[in-house]
Design goal:
By secondary structure, the protein is an alpha+beta fold. The chain folds into four domains: 11-95, no CATH class; 124-318, 2-Layer Sandwich (Nucleotidyltransferase, domain 5), CATH 3.30.420; 410-640, no CATH class; 742-840, no CATH class. The protein is built from 21 helices and 32 strands. The strands form nine sheets. It has a six-stranded antiparallel beta sheet with strand order 21-22-23-24-18-25, sandwiched between helices. InterPro entries: DNA/RNA_pol_sf, GAG-pre-integrase_dom, Integrase_cat-core, PolX-like_BBD, Retrotran_Ty1/copia-like, RNaseH-like_sf, RNaseH_sf, RVT_2.
């Protein structure tokens, strides 16, 4: 005993515990100790005999092989099992163990909780494997779902298919399905009992369903429907009756308050609903999935034998024996192969699916492994935060690119037909890492945990869509780093797309050569100050040093501090060679010598080099090659997905290749072009109907934003309003044309048109100041830089900007008023009035006619590419 006392054992034997679940639990080698006032069961012995104890708060579940055996609750600091009766072994007449019922229970669940008599018939027809069935066993789910009164007896049966069709509409509108279905209608052939089920949104759709049913069955059987029997529901009156009369179909209706006259359809509806309830209860799925359950139940019933038929309805209707080997328990977990477009989002090759449902169900994808019945459970959905979750935003100057269908792991890459090419890319990556002395093999210090890694594979494409090269990147799992231990500061600047356009415009204006270079494995150049350890990469584990780890000496892709360390290394290299950093954009470097000047613009590892002559450009390339492992791409062709074309008129930026790719991806390539990006009369409202594909919609908007930010200011307002459109590819010659634009909703509430125009004027002034300071750092630009003229079509806003007097009515925009006044006083900007019809910024704020859009586009420097 627990208090060190002893008690006499009076006997030893076996008992059967009848659980509240209906199962029986046999306990062997049981000791009878009268002095113990409570019956005790050892949880450890239950575990050794294959049982599982699952504790959940104040209750527990006893299961075996996934089946619920019993349950209990916490009482007086002890878990008490719910037992209905305790039967000594000599009183237990049923010699079969409850766990011999596993096969019958599984098939009972697979076949939609049909009765055990049907299972006997399937075994006798050799349609199911032979297994033992306890006729006294009761399924609690069936008892809960199917408890009814005694049914009426059938009276007659037709001799040929389609001689008599029974039909009835069942109302389940108390719960609307995900597809909006509220009813279902059945059409049952009296001869074969083969049934069709159609889901309806309203009862008047019954006629449309019957027309579809009539065409299909008459074509399949080469027979005509002769009689249709239904109740007197309004859905079977005109025009349903007129349709039957026109096609020679006798429409029989039941007498009032006599549903037994249409008993076949009525009983079918009841059976379908019982199976539906049983499947929903056993799976734990919400009731709004009753439509899927009804269709599955009808599918099963058509393949089950009827009481007065020697064959199943399926065999009588189709002429072949049904198969049950592919059936799974309805509502079980399944895994399906991911469709190719989804692989841009999901890293795995398969994903859990639930027949287009949101909730995961329990099953298995293996045909040799039998899935277990799911116990009934009441799961409490976790509380979700009401705080709106937003992703990090880095502004329009950060560009993202969509991945193609590449391998997701090292093993997958090595098993593909392109394995030799991927192997070459992997070897090149490892070679770069080793040559750069990125890590050294050491023993893992006590208390340290190495970071994992991942191989990233990508096919780099050319503009024409062909493969340029295969790239492999070893990335450390930096998301497991701890701030303050593995890293401290992570900020790293990235050049603005506006800066790139400005530099290309300067190159067009001064006829400068533009070259392009790429830094190989840029992030491997940064020096690390912290001690970071990583596992040895798969396929390159050093023999004899398997237990050692990589201590990172230099930064590696994936580390949170890698971008910062690389940028600091590049800054030091450039400044030590006479370059100075532009104050407005920390990724633009300028060098002015007696032989000329050169400008370098860095975007992570891609860079543009432009200079007054080829000699200074070549000298810069030699310097960069001496510092880093570089790839010389020659004259600039494509930078960040923007194609640069030099013509006699200057330079043209275009994205025709990217626009074509986007149109093909979303199935819009063959659509007719529109005259304007957005209809003038279009009024957008929130979608209150069925949901659309949120993922595809976001991808479309993201692609349009990328195009708009790079080369297409004419669609800025349309993208801002989240509109869809297609357009012919266009280009932009850069010399005295648009280099910066934006269309967004104002964040400050304006109480008048003047205040709204003044807020826009303040934003334009801020951008003009940045552009002016950017040009001041350019060696070729005339100094001093004259004021930048801003055209405004609001005379009241111009008057307010030029007025020294302050009006208290507009005090909430006082800071903006002071900012604009300061810019005017310092000679940074000037403001001129322009008529609204001549303002080329009009399409960025509103939808305009085709003529106005074309006029404004020409003013921005846009022209079609032929």
């Amino acid at each position: 005993m627990g208090n060190s006392s002893t008690s006499k054992v009076e006997g030893k034997g076996k008992v059967v515990l009848k659980m509240s679940s209906g199962k029986e639990l046999t306990l062997n080698d049981l000791l009878h100790v009268p002095d113990i006032r409570k019956n005790l069961v050892s949880g450890s012995l239950l575990s050794k005999n294959g049982f599982q104890l699952v504790f959940e708060s104040d209750k527990f579940l006893l299961t075996k092989s996934g089946m619920l055996v019993g349950k209990g609750y916490l009482s007086d600091d002890l878990f008490k099992m719910n037992v209905m009766t305790i039967v000594p072994i000599n009183e237990n007449k049923n010699k079969s163990s409850a766990y011999l019922l596993e096969s019958s229970n599984v098939w009972h669940g697979r076949l939609g909780h049909v009765n055990f008599g049907t299972l006997h018939r399937l075994i006798n027809l050799n349609l199911l494997p032979k297994f033992q069935i306890d006729s006294n066993h009761k399924c609690e789910t069936c008892v809960e779902a199917k408890l009814t009164r005694t049914s009426f007896h059938s009276i007659e049966r037709s001799s040929d298919p389609l001689e008599l069709i029974h039909s009835d509409v069942c109302d389940l509108k108390f719960v609307q399905t995900r597809g909006g279905w509220k009813y279902f209608v059945t059409f049952i052939d009296d001869c074969t009992r083969y049934c069709y089920v159609y889901l309806l949104r309203s009862k008047d759709e019954a006629l449309e369903s019957f027309i579809h049913y009539k065409k299909e069955v008459e074509n399949q059987l080469n027979k005509k429907i002769k009689v249709l029997r239904s109740d007197r529901g309004g859905e079977y009156e005109s025009p349903f009756g007129e349709f039957c009369s026109q096609h020679g179909i006798v429409h029989q209706t039941t007498a009032p308050y006599s549903p037994q006259q249409n008993g076949v359809a009525e009983r079918k509806n009841r059976t379908l609903k019982e199976m539906m309830n049983a499947m929903l209860i056993s799976s734990g799925l919400p009731q709004n999935l009753w439509g899927e359950a009804i269709l599955f139940a009808n599918y099963i019933l058509n393949k089950l034998p009827q009481k007065k038929l020697d064959k199943t309805p399926y065999e009588l209707w189709k002429g072949r024996t049904p198969s049950y080997q592919f059936l799974k328990v309805w509502g079980c977990l399944a895994k399906v192969a991911v469709h190719i477009p989804k692989k841009e989002i999901f890293p795995c090759k398969s994903t859990q699916e639930t027949n287009s449902l949101k909730r995961n169900l329990e099953s298995t994808s293996s045909t040799s492994h039998d899935q277990e019945l799911m116990e009934k459970r009441n799961e409490v959905e976790p509380r979700r935060s009401k705080r709106t979750k937003t992703s990090k935003t880095f502004g329009p100057d950060f560009l993202t690119f969509m991945l193609e269908d590449e391998p997701q792991s090292f093993k997958e890459a090595m098993s593909m037909p392109e394995a030799p090419l991927w192997k070459e890319a992997v070897n090149s990556e490892i070679e770069s890492i080793l040559q750069n002395h990125t890590w050294e093999l050491v023993d893992l210090p006590p208390g340290c945990k190495p970071l994992g890694y991942k191989w990233i594979f990508k096919r780099k494409m050319k503009v024409d869509g062909s493969i340029d090269k295969y790239k492999a990147r070893l990335v450390v799992k930096g998301y497991k780093q701890k701030e303050g231990v593995d890293y401290f500061d992570t900020y790293s600047p990235v050049t603005r797309i506006t800066s790139i356009r400005m530099l290309i415009a300067i190159a067009a204006l001064y006829n400068l050569e533009i070259h392009q270079m790429d830094v190989k494995t840029a992030f491997l150049n940064g020096e690390l100050d912290e001690e970071i350890y990583m596992e040895q990469p798969e396929g390159f584990i050093v023999p004899g040093k398997e237990k050692k780890v990589c201590r990172l000496v230099k930064s590696l892709y994936g580390l949170k501090q890698a971008p910062k360390q690389w940028h600091e290394k590049f800054d030091n290299a450039m400044m030590s060679n006479g370059f100075r950093i532009n104050e407005c954009d920390k990724c633009v470097y300028v060098k002015n010598t007696t032989s000329g000047y050169v400008i370098v613009c860095l975007y992570v590892d891609d860079m543009l080099i432009m200079g007054s002559n080829n000699d200074i450009i070549k000298a810069t390339k030699r310097m960069l090659n001496s510092k880093f492992d570089m790839k010389d791409l020659g004259v600039a062709d494509v930078i960040l997905g923007i194609k640069i074309t030099r013509t006699s008129d200057g330079l043209i930026l275009s994205q025709s290749h990217y626009i074509k790719k986007v149109l093909e991806k979303f199935g819009r390539y063959d659509d007719s072009p529109m005259k304007t990006p957005i209809d003038v009369n279009l009024h957008l409202t929130k979608n209150k109907g069925n949901d659309i594909s949120q993922l595809e919609y976001s991808q479309i908007i993201g692609s349009l934003m990328y195009i708009m930010n790079c080369t297409r200011p004419d669609i800025a307002y349309s993208v801002n309003k989240l509109s869809r459109y297609t357009s012919n590819p266009r280009g932009r010659p850069l010399e005295g044309n648009t280099v910066s634009w934006k269309s967004s909703k104002q964040t400050c509430i304006a109480r008048s048109t003047m205040e709204s125009e003044f807020i826009a004027l303040d934003k334009a002034g801020e951008e003009a100041e940045w552009l002016r300071h950017f040009l001041e750092d350019m060696p070729m630009w005339t100094k001093p830089v004259p004021p930048i003229c801003i055209h405004c079509d609001s005379q009241s806003a111009i008057g307010r900007a030029q007025s020294y007097m302050y009006n208290g009515k507009s005090r909430h925009i006082r800071r903006r008023h002071n900012t604009v006044r300061q810019l005017l006083s310092n000679g940074i900007i000037s403001i001129d009035y322009i008529k609204s019809k001549d303002n080329i910024a009009g399409p960025l704020t509103k939808g305009l006619s085709g003529e106005r859009v074309n006029c404004s586009s020409r003013g921005m420097g846009l022209k079609p590419i032929i």
